[in-house]
Amino acid sequence: MEKKSDTYQIATDIQWEYAGDGVVRQIMGYDEHLMMVKVKFNQGAVGTLHQHPHTQSTYVASGCFEVTIDKEKKVLRAGDGYYVAPNLQHGCVCLEAGTLIDTFSPMREDFLK
Question: What count of other Cβ atoms lies within 10 Å of the Cβ of residue 107?
Answer without folding.
Answer: 23
